Amino acid sequence: MEINVERVEDAKVKLEVTVDATRVEEAINEAAKRLASEVKIPGFRPGRVPRRVLESRLGTDALLQEAAREALPQFYQEAIQTEDLQVAGQPELDVDTFQSGEDARFSATVEVVPEIDPPAVDDIEVDHPDWEVTEQEVQNQLLSLRERFASLQTVERPAEVGDAVLVTIVGERDGERVDEASGDDLLYQLQDPNESDSEVDRNLIGAQAGETITFTDTLGEDFGEELAGAEVAFTVTVHEIKERSLPELTDDFVDENTEFETAAELEDELRRQMADHKRSEAAAELRNSVVEQVSDRVEVTVPDAMAQEELRFRLERLQSEAQRSGMSLDEYLQAAGGEDIFTQLDEQARATVKAQIVLDAIGHEAGIEVTREDLEAEIFRQAERLGQDPSEIAEFMSAEPERLQALASDTFRRKAIDHLLERVTIHGGPPPEEEHAGAVRAAEVAAAEAQDEDGDEEADDDAASDEADKADGADDADRASRTEG
C-alpha cells in the first residue's frame, strides 16, 4: 500500500492511497463468496455459485461495487493507522480505480485533530475561588427552612412586601374581559416592585382589605403571541391581607420536621455540608479557570466534526432536562434563551473541544498514561456520584468500546488538569487535607441526591438537602472533556 498525505487545511488532510492489485483481487473474491451465499441461482446450491456465473447474472459492476463497499473502509483504516493520523470525523472517499487485475486508487479527505505545541504554563497565577462558608450563608439556609413551614395569618393593616394578598383580578382589553389576565380569589405573593418591576406589586403595596384598585399594564411574553405587548386595564379587589408567620427554630420544630433532634445538631450538620459543597464547587471552578487560561494561550482550529459531536452531547443533555421539566426541547430552548441559545451552545461546544485538544497535547508532553487502576478509580468515583454499584457502571462501560474510550479520555484529561494544577501558582485555598475531605463528602452527597431523584427519600427531609442541590452539576464541571472554556 502506497500512501501520500497532503494537508489541505489546518484540521483537514487528503490521503492518496494505492492498493496492490493482488489485494484488490482478494477483496473481489471475498465479495463473490458473500454474494454466492445470498443469491439464489437455479442449479447451484447457496455458497456454490462460481464467480463467473455471478458476474454473468449480476453484472461485473455490481460485484465490483460490493467489493469496494467492503474493502475501501478497511483500506482507509489501514492507511490512517499507518500514517498515525488522529481523525476527527468521517472521510469523503473518492474512488479513481477499483478493477480486477489493477491497483486500486482512491483518495480520502478527512478532518484530523490539529497538532499543537503545548503552551507555557509555569507563569500562570490564579486566585483560588472563595471556599469558606459565612455565618450569614448558614443563617440564610436556616431561614429557608423556616420559610418552607411558614403559616399565613390575616392582619388588619395595609399590604406590605412579603404579604400574601387574597384578590380578584379582572383584566379588560377594549372593554372585553381577558380571561388569561383575570382570576377570582387568587392568593398573590407581594414582591418588591423595584426587583419585580411589576405594576401589580406597585399598586397593591399599601392597599387595604375591601379596597378596589385600577391601573393599566402591558402584558409580557408569557401571555402568548396574541396577547404579548397588549395594554390591559386591570381592576383588583382586595379581600384579605395575610402575613407570613415563620416558626421559631426550636428543638421541637427541628425534631418534628427534620431527621435531627435538636436545632444545634441541624445547624452543625448544615454548616458541615455547606462547607464540603462550597469547597467542592470552588475546586471545580478552579480547575475550569486554569484550563480556560491555558486554552486561551493557544490558537486552535477546531474540527467541525468534533464541535458537532460536542453540540449533540449538549442538546441531548438539554433534552433530558426538558423531559424532567415536562417540556419539549423546543419549549425548553425557547425558555432558556430562544435562538440565542444555539449560538451559545455552539460557542461552548467549540471552546470545549479546543480545551480537549490543548489538554491532550499537555498530557502527552507530560507523558501521562491511563492505567487500569485509573479506570477502576474513575468507575468507583462515578458509581459514588450516581449512587450505583461499581460493577453496574463497569458492565455498562464495557458493553461498547466507545464508552471505555470515552472513560479513558476523561480520565486522561482529568490527570492532565491535575498536572496543570501542580505547575501553576494558586493563591489561597483550603488546606489539602480539607479539600480532599470535601471532595469525598461531595461524592457521598451526590449519591444521596441520585437516590432522592428515584424517590427513595422524601423531598423535604431536612434543610441540609437544600444546600446539597447547589452541588448539582459540579462534577460535570470537573469533567475535563466537558470544560466550558
Count of all domains = 3
Q: Could you give me the name of the CATH homologous superfamily of the largest domain? A: Trigger factor, C-terminal domain
How many H/I helical runs?
Answer: 17
The class by helix and strand makeup works out as alpha+beta
CATH class of the largest domain: Mainly Alpha
Q: How many beta-strand runs?
A: 12
Integer average pLDDT: 85
**What is the succession of H and E elements?**
EEHHHEEEHEEEEHHEEHHHHHHHHEHHH
CATH topology annotation of the largest domain: Trigger factor, domain 2
Q: What overall form do the CA principal axes indicate? A: elongated
What do you see in this structure?
With 485 residues, the protein is α+β, with helices and mostly antiparallel strands. The chain has three domains: 2-111, Alpha-Beta Plaits (2-Layer Sandwich), CATH 3.30.70.1050; 125-134 and 253-482, Orthogonal Bundle (Trigger factor, domain 2), CATH 1.10.3120; 151-245, Chitinase A, domain 3 (Roll), CATH 3.10.50. The protein is 51% helix and 17% strand. Helix 1 crosses helix 3, helix 9 packs across helix 11 and helix 11 packs across helix 14. The chain is elongated, with a radius of gyration of 32 Å. Mean pLDDT is 85; it is low at 442-485.
